[in-house]
Amino acid sequence: MLRREEWQGIVRDVDWTPTYVDDDALYPEWMSGGGKVPREAWKRWEESYKVSYPEYVATQREKETSAYAVQAALKRSKAFETLDEGWKSSTKLHFGGVALVEAAAILAELKMARFGLSPAWRNMAVFGALDEMRHTQITLLFAHEFVSKDPQYDWAQKALHTDDWVSIALRNLFDSSMGGANAVDMAIELPLTIETGFTNLQFVGLSADALEAGDVNFSNMISSIQTDEARHSQQGGPTLEILAEHDPVRAQWTVDKYFWLSARAFSAITGTSMDYYTPVENRRQSYREFMEEWIIDQFMRTLKDYGLRRPWYWDEFMEGLDTWHHSLNLGLWFYRPTLWWKTAAGVDEASRAWLNEKYPNWETIYGDKWRVIAENINAGNIPATLPETLPWLCSMCHLPNCNPSYGRDGKWRVRNHSLRHDGMTYHFCTKACRQIWWEDRDQLNHTTFVERFLLGEIQPMDLSGALGHMGLTPDVMGDDAHNYAWAKSFAPAAPGQTVPAGGE
Amino acid sequence: MIMTDAPAPRLVPVNAIFADDIAEILVAITTADTIAEVAGKVAHHSEGKRVRARDAEKVVYHNDRILAPDQTVAEAGIAPFDHVRVDYAD
User: Which helix (H) or strand (E) holds B26?
Assistant: First the structure.
């Protein structure tokens, strides 16, 4: 019997020699995306961690057995009932935001399994597709267990089928990086940028927070998924290496673009979960610390390894680590009826002390805004804490334009970043989103929720019409996770202090 | 019936922000609104809700210029989807 090392090199390189059609018909440019790279160059494609099908099946079986054994044991416990409501929202956001992205990733992997330009790559992508199938199933199953206890968990299945503005934002990112991309671009956008980098945030960072918060079940599930990500994400490295050698401009642009767009999306999903929804006593690291350790260091090494430069937007990105997710958290909380989870304000006294320690400008930018909100709550004026219009959503990342910067005017202000094109004015959350939109405007096909509203696609043209369009019903509409108890930690408004101009 | 040649006010949806609020928002104004009314419509969503109310005059910025409060939106040339910033006068 041959040892694996003796046969695998041959098996993973087995390729067809077409005689009835030419290579271009088998691997068309619009699906494979070889571009300027000579066809022969792809023969050098080699994954660093090799696996055979029997090994794959045996390992996956072990993982599945282990994950479901823990789940079965916890079903008999009262663990779920003891979890903090804010933490549960981290998981609801994950379930709704991720479950069907995993399903879309099956198709993405299958595209690489069919149109990847090397047999070894196609082989690896088959395992990737099987991985993503498992991730979809395990995520939906774990969420389904809680549907009878809380209908918001049903949005694991539902969220990405709706036109909720968060769902549109996520679809915009993943339709672009998976649905619309050719195999080469996709290998850089998905396995290299998103899976090598950003899923670490959600699957490693949040797993640690989950354990601290007592959610062994969730931690167990996402840890199980992460072990697969670590393997199939290898498709990115060899692809980037070959692309960077033959077409460095395209390699640089693709990495830069998807690093930025991933950073935007994950600041909403993971940034809020880590720094606000996880109870303060359970936080292992701040989002910024985690980004610096797990994402930025690794990303810089990747750029260096492949001879690429630091992206043009680097200063804007680093500054955003101190603002993006804080603004998004406040915005998500204020627009809580538009969400399928209960938003945790995460700004009680202990949390504010923690935030100010981790983010020295937090009080200056956000402290008094939360104080004004708390004063309205403490005065019984909840309507003043609810929206009456829509936030303006970025035409590129679809997240609210909510990123303050410190200007030469000596003020922290959200600056307007807009451009006119074909008689229409577009607004963006950042300079980098505006630049990416301009460069790749022909690839974009999702209109933002605000654009839909203004085009008359949402009727009636008021907030009730907007909520209906998002598919939100009163039983799942988000509200404050802790029934506003955190507001008590703010002192009441001082006598004579002007509080609710927009209130009572 | 009183006949008039004045056109009916048209809706002008704008991208707006008030002072140091954390997000730009969609605000519906009309061509007949005065700039002072625009300031009030934008501030309505932020002042005393996220931005602490101040007893100070409000100014409206459009295309890097301060607009006169008694001008109308039509006179000021504010078009749909334009950006409007409202802030307290320093």
Answer: strand B25-30
